[in-house]
Amino acid sequence: MTEGRKTRPASRVDTGGIVVKPAVCPHDCWDTCAMLVQVKDGRVVRVMGDPDHPVTRGFLCVKTNHYEERVYSPDRVLYPMKRTGPKGSGQFARISWDEALSIIADRFRAIIAEYGAEAILPYSYAGTIGVLQYGSMDRRFFHRLGASQLDRTICSAAGEAAVNSVLGARMGPDPEDMVHARLIVVWGVNPISSNPHQWPIIEEARRRGARLVVIDPYRHKAAREADWHLSPRPGTDAALALGVMHVLVREGWLDREYIDRYTLGFDRLERKVAEWPPERAAAVTGIPAGDIVALARLWWESRPAVLRVGYGLQRHTNGGSTVRAIAMIPALTGHWRDRGGGFLLSNSSSYGLNSFALKRPDLMPSPPPRVINMIELGKALTEPLDPPVKALFVYNSNPACVAPNGSRVLQGLSREDLFTVVHEQLFTDTCRWADIVLPATTQFEHLDLMTSYWHLYVQLNEPVIEPLGEAVPNTELFRRLARAMGFTEPCFRDSDEDLIRQALSSGSPYLEGITLERLKRERRIKVNRPAAPFAEGGFGTPSGRVEFYSEALAAQGFDPVVEYTPPAESVDGSPELAARYPIALITPAAHHFLNSTFANLPRMMEREGAPTIYLNPVDAEARSIRSGDWVRVFNDRGSVLLKAQVGDWSQPGVAISPSIWWSRHMPGGAGINVLTLDQPADMGGGASFHTNLVQVERADPPGQPSQ
Asked: How far apart, in whole angstroms, are the C-alpha atoms of residue 435 and residue 268?
């Protein structure tokens, strides 16, 4: 059933000349919150949650409660700028838009003439997750240009590839239905920090009798509130899932009818999980065998039950296999039958937007240009390629801060022969290395269509203030660049409203009845999707079933039956390296930051405190480290200075550093990603941010952070 038919006014005038206007949060988060923005005399004065949204329910996270501080930050980029000093110096002079576009077009033409268009590399991700500003006119431009294609893998690629291989679609239960669950297993995510509107749903389910189990190496806020917290060693979650499946099969806790009708390859999976008794899984994960048995029993006996899986556990070199194993569990026990039950990593496939019309891949030359994985940016900029990367165009991202193996990334950005353009809202770490910096609008200054990878509402975001300075949205930037390059295709003249209409034109039954005009009236509309999408099969795999055995993966060189492989950097995966660097470091999201977004705002930095590493008491005592001490954390890739906190945050041998601080605000000027691995994961080319071995030692207190 479609919801959201109530007409919601575009704005209303409050007392004191304040106009209240609706908006939608654009940031890379499951929640995609509905906002109400108070505007007075053309300026945002307050931001609130919209109480009419059925899921986000009128409250915002700690990050966006003061979103106006980002809009009006002293770091805001307001005009085009050209570098005047050495790369990395941050020295720029204001120029006009015409001059900026002319410089870019001339450099692009010269590079294409000498090296070909593949020498130009776009670099973007989810600085905004709006449908238009994330990926529409920009993709058309770079496709038409013939630039290298960017494989956008940095967040979720391994998990998405895994889910697609098992289920055929990134789809799970409606979050609104999770209140009916009697067991919620939160696996590899801290919803209090990164999915805050999941938490009231969990609390309501618990009031109705549900139990909450959290599985995470990090004893974070949600883990401390859970009925039961299991803390596996980082990157061993697939072994835990295999151990659970062993118990389910051994004890006969199976829905045989669901298996027979809606799955493929159970006999092969059965033989595989026979190799993983709880004792073996315990030896790998550090979780007692009895707890693995108890978890399997609890799952079998609870109806409905849901596995709410996060992206953290797939950010390992074995991340795809991990998610693949976990995603199989509900099909064994038939939990997909129940409303509010099953497995949820992402609901991104629940919209059915017309991606082809938005991005126009048909504009690319034939054969298509090469593909460069975004997590290997440092490698692409510093190792020989044919052709070499001679121009980098950054938008919706801050790679100097967020890309792995950060020292290598900065080495590449410092090349004098690399022409770098950055389109950005704030003067980030990456801007310091640019040749041209262009001003970008914030969400309050442009139009966009918003979906969620968690809830099921399509939302419209309309501008609530005029753009500050000379800022323009991504869509307008690439229209201007297309004109500067002489592109004459009609698609480069499409307006933002045209783009929205094209996005909604897929013919998907999920979007039936959803139009731009209706969104302008109603602000948000729920998609037409079954609440329990796989209650009676209907999987999008080649077989139409849950694939315990995958011929498609076998054809790509993967194990057709899921298996556990130790992380590339771990005691089991690289014992010699572990002897030198015995601490496994994971870098989850800081509570007050979203990746590097908000990490320059004084309010958020003050609330987050200092760049910190959480150490187990065993590891701290062995190094004579106490809470409050400064420590040096290092490996072969680099080193950082962090303030130590000692406590029961994890198993011994595991450390946690909530991230990502801007490098310029880090003691010594080196950010956390100088430590992280840039090796792609086993599936989807995903990132391996949490597969890192380090050593920790006491250090002298640092001086003032570099400015």
From this structure: 56
Q: What is the pLDDT of residues 453-479, one digit of tens each?
A: 999 999 999 999 999 999 999 999 999
368, part of any domain: yes
Cβ-proximal residues to 283 (8 Å cutoff; 6+ apart), any chain: none
Cβ contact 547:264 at 8 Å: yes
- Please report, for the domain that includes residue 321, its CATH number: 3.40.228.10
pLDDT band at 1 (very low <50, low <70, confident <90, very high): very low
Residues 302 and 435 in one domain: no
Asked whether residue 514 is domain-assigned, the answer is: no
Q: 378 is written with which tokens?
A: 């440092």
Domains of the chain: total? 4
Amino acid identity of 199?
Answer: W
**pLDDT tens digits, 356-411:** 999 999 999 999 999 999 999 999 999 999 999 999 999 999 999 999 999 999 99
C-alpha closest to that of 236 among 580, 620, 586, 556: 586
Mean pLDDT of 435-445: 98
Judge contact between 15 and 8, C-beta under 8 A.
Answer: no
Run of H or E including 108: helix 97-115
Please tell me the distance from the alpha carbon of residue 400 to that of residue 674, in angstroms, as a whole number. Answer: 10
Whichever domain contains 597, its CATH number is 2.40.40.20
Say how far apart CA 572 and CA 568 lie, in whole Å. Answer: 9
Q: Where are the beta strands (DSSP E) in 223-333?
A: 228-230, 263-264, 305-309
Q: Which residues contact 370 (CB under 8 A, 6 or more apart)?
A: 118, 148, 149
Is pLDDT of 5 > 70? no
Residue 704: how many other CB atoms lie within 10 Å: 6
- 3-state DSSP assignment of residue 388: coil
The answer as to whether 230 is a domain residue is yes
Instruction: Go through 86-99 and write b for each residue having 16 or more CB atoms within 10 A of its CB, e for each that does not.
Output: ebeebebeebeeee
pLDDT at residue 6 in the model: 59
Residue 386 within any structural domain of the chain? yes
The three-point CA angle 17-23-25 to 5° equals 135
Verify that 116 and 230 share a domain, yes or no: no
Query: How many angstroms separate the CA atoms of 477 and 482, rounded?
Result: 9
Compute CA 648 distance to the chain's CA centroid, rounded to the nearest angstrom. 27
Q: How many other β-carbons are positioned within 10 Å of the β-carbon of residue 85?
A: 11
My answer on whether omega of the bond before 660 falls inside 30° of 0, hence cis, is yes
Same domain? For 332 and 240 the reply is yes
- Could you tell me which residues are beta bridge partners of residue 426? 76
Domain around 46 = 12-71
pLDDT number for residue 8? 61
> CATH number, domain at 148?
3.40.50.740
Supply the pTM of this predicted model.
Answer: 0.96
